[in-house]
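Below is how a single chain appears once it has passed through the pipeline. First comes the sequence as given, then the structure the pipeline wrote out for it. We keep one example in the README because the format questions we get most often are answered faster by looking than by reading.
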Amino acid sequence: MEIAAAMRRLGPRRSLDELPASQGGERCGLVVVVWRGAGPWPPEDRRPRRVAGVDVKAAKRPSRTYGILRAVSGVLAVGLVLLALGNIGVQFYANSRDLPGPGTLSVTAHVVAALFAVAGQIVADRYADWRAPVASLVVLAVAGATLWTFWWA
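Resulting structure:
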């Protein structure tokens, strides 16, 4: 509790080491960074604001469950991109050495799956309504289908 109170007394971009020991200093090397202009969340004022002549409402923050789902789908989207790049690299290597590679179907399917996953992740990151979890679930389904079809089956 003392550290939290000391953090409230600090200004932006100061560390707890600058406080006297009686006020909670020298306990840890924690650096507190406060972004100027970042207010409390959610904003107390939910009335629409006028920005460039247009009424703008404060955005609704997504729930923690959707945040975890978005994070997992983001990891899978990046993984699919890396798998597609790896497949392309292995195919080029195999062609240069006259070896059988993964094949055109596998490379094309991985690239298409990576594109669908990245598009779904962009939708999941941009929206805070029902589209975000649906897009995340689409990314999960695409990743699962790709892994099942080309790696596990």
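Helices lie at 2-9, 64-96, 104-126, 131-152.

See the next section for the split statistics.
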